[in-house]
Design a protein that fits this description.
The protein is mainly alpha-helical. It has 21 helices and 9 strands.
Amino acid sequence: MPTVWAGVLAVLMLGPALGAGFVLSYDMVWVPDLALTRDVLGLGSGLPRAVPSDAVIAVLDEVVPGLVLQKLVLVGALVLAGAGAAELVRERSLAARLVVVSLTVWSPYVAERLWMGHWPMLLAYAAVPWLVLAGRRWAAAGPGPVERGPVGRGPVWMLPILLVGSLSASAGIVSAAVVLATGLRRGRRPVLLLAMVAAVNAPWVVAGLTHAGEAASATGFEVFALRGDALPAPLAALTLGGIWNTSVIPASREGWQAWAALALLVGLVGAGLRRWWVGDSQRIAILGLWVAGMAIAILGWAAPQTLDGLAQNIPGLALMRDSSRLLPLCLPLLVLTVAAGVDALRERLRGTAPRWAAAVVLALAPIAVLPDAAWGLAGGIGTADYPASWHQAGAALAEETAPGDVLVLPWSAYRAPAWNGRRPVLDPLPRMLPRASVINGDLVIGGTEIAGEDPRAAAAAEALAAPEPSARAAELSRLGIGYVITDRTAGEAPPLAGETVHDSGDLLLQRLPEEATRPAAYTMGPVRLTAMAVAWVAYGVAWLGATTSTVLLLISIVRRPAANVRD
């Protein structure tokens, strides 16, 4: 029943996003067939922000079409989040489990991150309750046989959940923190647990270390800090809201509904806090996760300039720039205390009818206070089909044999194409191409420009400023750029002296003078390249182990009913 309710809520929230076409919204950029280029593997010159998620999609969409895969990810994230929340409180009443499903799926965090296109964070959010269950089972397991539980038999079943919840740097931090907080116990195989966490996070960790110089230049803590809506920022964080981009905050969060949501949450948590505290052996770990998530979010709001300065000298601190992204760390405490609170309130009511009436009201309350999360976030997200000319340009480039990467113009990061309903999206064109791309990574947010971290892109911008088309082409060629593709529908671009390879009117693909073109200028040194290779091998082994364990789990599920019949 709770899983069915989670599915109903997922369909109601996504609505038109489940129709034909891709959902393209801000950072959510999916294409029919993502190529496994150097950038996707984290071997490019820019700071790799989509490692390992892009590589996983590039492999999977060879088996499952990208369009279908995106729908499965979006629906799966919401359903698994709700089902995991219900499983985490499986000892509670059905009413309590239905309420936590509503609270988990119909959350400001889900609505805002879905609109913002942070699908790896939605998967991490969905993985959190399951990782708490897996961590508890791991901590409880001795060296002998492990009792069968809701997430399988033995510690190996943690691996698929970890992989799903660690497809980006921030997602990996959330998943690792949850599983280590709940799973690490003295004498409970800590080395194996740490090895699994290291393997599933190896690609983005090593890629970040090999780009430490670029990472140190990342600033903008103030721009990406926690934001309030109708609530002050810290109170918005209590409800798992407060994303920095106010354009993706549902309108209801700017009115009285935000205060009603806060009152509902605080009331249920207060009603169940004591009951949960005395009955949970891992209360310190769960409380610690909540404190960590809340502290990181509020610190980014309270001291952004200090963090900006520290990020120049502390590797990896820039990962906390979008501080509210780590709020899923707070989810376990909310689910556990709210479920206890629902049961506490129901016990005060006499009779079956009043109890179920209260349960229905509480289960529908999260929807009532966030009504515009329904049906594609009230039109905030939808679907679109890529123009035929985009496929043709990609095919034309695939037939080219001259060396060099592709420069994408106009020189801006985001687009709002007419064929996507003028919805803003990170330029999808580079992902439609079969070669590594050089793009503008600068962001302009509220009048503040945040410089990108790719030194090669900065050099390309200087080359584009040369006075003559021939000089621009020559400078770009020296950077290892062999082709330039221009989306004329997105704005003007400086002319270049190059040979036209493909021209469909809206897209122009040019080959720079071949005699001046050089292979890709950016190549990793042998030590860095070896480190990345080791990281990907470890990650591949983790996926192999996860696939094997999943197949064995499915076999055990199929065989279990037959065994029960024989018994």
